[in-house]
Amino acid sequence: MPRGGEKDIIPPKVLLAVPENYSVNFDAKKIELTFDEFVKLDNMQKNLLVSPPLVSNPEFRLRGKTLQIFFDEPLMEETTYTLFFGDAIVDLTEGNPLSDYNYVFSTGPLLDSLSLGGIVLNAFDLTVPDQAYVMLYADIPDTITADSVPYLIRPRYIARTDLDGHFTLSNLKDTVYQLFVLSDMNSNLLYDMPGEKIAFLDSLIQPVYVKPSLPDSVLMQNDSLRTDTLLWEQSLSDTLFSDMEMISDTLTDTLLSEQYLLPELDIQLFMFEEQDSVQRLLRAEMLRPGLLQFAFRYPIKNLTINELRPLPDSFEIFEVMSKTADTLLWYYPSHITDSLFLNIKQDTVINDTISLSLAPKKTTVSRRKKEEVEKPPALNLITNIKARKLDIPKPLQLRFEEPVIRYVIRDTNWLVINDDTLYNQLKFKQIDAFGFSYQLDTTFEAESRVMVRFPDSVFFGYSGKTNDTTQLNFNVPALDQYGNLFVDLIVPEEGKSYIIQLLDDKEKVLDVRNISSSGIQEYLYLLPGKYLLKLIDDRNGNGRWDTGDYLKRQQAERVMYFTRIIEIRANWDQEEIWKSSF
Questions:
Q1: Distance CA 20, CA 174 (A)
Q2: What is the mean pLDDT of residues 322-328?
Q3: For residue 223, what pLDDT is reported?
Q4: Number of structural domains, the chain?
């Protein structure tokens, strides 16, 4: 059998465009693009982008090697249109895309030649958003306020960000614009869906002129276009430098090359998801017998919960509020199986009436498992021992599933350190406000082998559960298994509030510090691995990162990362200097 030739990796080429690409005085009802091979369309509705946007996308038909494009609506006068095809056109056999092919035309005698460029990143972690839409607005109707623009009207010009977050808006008219970026989950070019992200520029922006990079073949084939373009260049050059001061005020890090102001990567925009400002009771549920949870959207104040029906006198509640004050836990005697009828109020924001059944869900189990279930459950605990190791300089900690209301250490407890055995020397102390966490009042040196054993019924939980007999065996590693990190941090402005975070390579937060001045940050006894440093501009000084609010014209709090990943090696001190700036 014939083996065939090499795999086709060459994308299709446009042999003929009717009307020609970069045409002026465009009044055709259709466009025809003829290719050097048969093509097919790949998800045209998603890949195609028309700027300025149309009410509905054009109609597409394939006739042999020719793609026909029909417009179903009248086009605006004196306007330059751009059709961005992305990767929508591919060859028929191998699917090689004609990447980033643009078709440009003007319904007037001139092609608009101004441009803007920049980059869009997610505000929280500086990652690249997935295909954000960059939108320009001009000629806003008098009936619409400036703040309402992204909610009510579609943009004048539009572009997508690429895989690196970069964008370019080309063929723009010479006027000032409002600039927004949307994730646009429902593809209607409006900011109208919960969960959509937004970015915005604080001031109006003026596009700048970039010398057209039109193909030579286009300029040679269309003398009138070349003449019009040169006349446009001449007319613009007369006003470009007189307006240079105004333009430079609206762009950052602008570059002047010969006589043209280049806008590439001038603008930085940071997308954020706004918080829903309405306080809500998200859920009220029984997590397990003896524990109810009330979860709210935001931290709660002045909360009252009233019982609408009386309950047994033995229904005593132990209330625990989460650190973030948005979750309330009720611990109660687990033997109570009545139903609760509650009225939940927070000022005038929440007034809900709910019913909760305290009866456990019925399940079918075998006789053997039934006997195990009927045994009194033990008070479960977890420790900070990982892989039978307790890291320096951490003390041994116990975390319980419910508040411990009584702690009674008795005889027959052991503490074995290497080959030394200490009887009845264990002492624990409570380290949190509610009694969930206890800490052993003994520290261990490096390279120690430790065994801790204590009997049952030392810790008594709120529900009446007690611990089982517990034995813990672990090692304390040698000092040379750790590394240390010393960061000489220079903050952008002394006296302001900042948050510095130490992260692992998966961006799990390992250490958080609130600072207001430059200085050396010490991170001791780090396990070998890769780490990141993140700095947050804590504008309001509340100790956490806050998102933005468009209507308040409030950007998300700025973040920055140390320029590279820090690799910690065992038995090694790492020193870094970080001159931070936003």
A1: 24
A2: 91
A3: 38
A4: 4
DSSP code, position 263 = -
The single-letter code of the amino acid at 125 is D
CATH of the domain at 34: 2.60.40.1220
Q: Return the DSSP state at 424.
A: S
Cα distances (angstroms) measured from residue 361 to each of 50, 288, 337: 56, 9, 11
Task: Report the mean per-residue pLDDT for the chain.
Answer: 86
351 Cβ contact list (under 8 Å, min separation 6): 343, 344, 345
Per mean pLDDT, which range of 43-47, 60-64, 327-331, 389-393 is the poorest?
Answer: 43-47
Contact (Cβ atoms closer than 8 angstroms) between residue 491 and residue 515: yes
312-321's contacts with Cβ under 8 Å and 24+ in sequence apart are 312/336, 312/338, 318/403, 318/405, 318/462, 320/403, 320/434
204, burial (CB in 10 Å: exposed 0-12, middle 13-18, buried 19+): middle
Token pair, residue 95, equals 């699917």
Look up the CATH number of the domain holding residue 500.
Answer: 2.60.40.1120
**Whether the Cβ atoms of residue 236 and residue 113 lie closer than 8 Å to each other:** yes
When pLDDT is cut at 50, 70 and 90, the band that residue 364 belongs to is low
Taking the C-alpha atoms of residue 276 and residue 24, their distance in angstroms, rounded to an integer, is 47
Q: Which segments of 2-149 are extended strands (E)?
A: 14-18, 30-35, 39-41, 49-51, 59-63, 66-70, 80-84, 89-91, 102-106, 114-122, 133-137
For residue 274, CA distances in Å to 155, 199, 308, 446, 522 come to 21, 10, 36, 48, 35
Q: Give the residue with greater pLDDT, 231 vs 125.
A: 125
Lowest model confidence (mean pLDDT) among 148-157, 212-221, 300-309, 436-445: 212-221
Q: Can you give the residue range of the structural domain that contains 501?
A: 481-579
Q: List all residues 6 or more positions away from 418 whose beta carbon is below 8 Å from its beta carbon.
A: 448, 449
Whole-number Cα distances in Å, 267 to 119, 200, 332, 484: 6, 11, 56, 38
Within this chain, do residues 535 and 409 fall inside the same structural domain, yes or no? no
> Can you tell me the distance from the alpha carbon of 230 to that of 224, in angstroms, rounded to the nearest whole number?
10
Give per-residue pLDDT as tens, 61-70.
999 999 999 9
On whether both 463 and 487 belong to a single domain, the answer is: no
Q: Is the peptide bond before 19 cis (omega within 30 degrees of 0)?
A: yes
Reported confidence tier of residue 374, pLDDT bands at 50, 70, 90:
low
Instruction: Report whether pLDDT(230) > 50.
Output: no
pTM: 0.79
Specify the pLDDT at position 311: 78
Q: Is residue 95 part of a domain?
A: yes
Q: Are residues 42 and 172 in the same domain?
A: yes
Cα–Cα distance between 52 and 184 in angstroms, integer?
17
DSSP 317: -
pLDDT tens digit string along 255-268?
Answer: 323 333 334 447 99
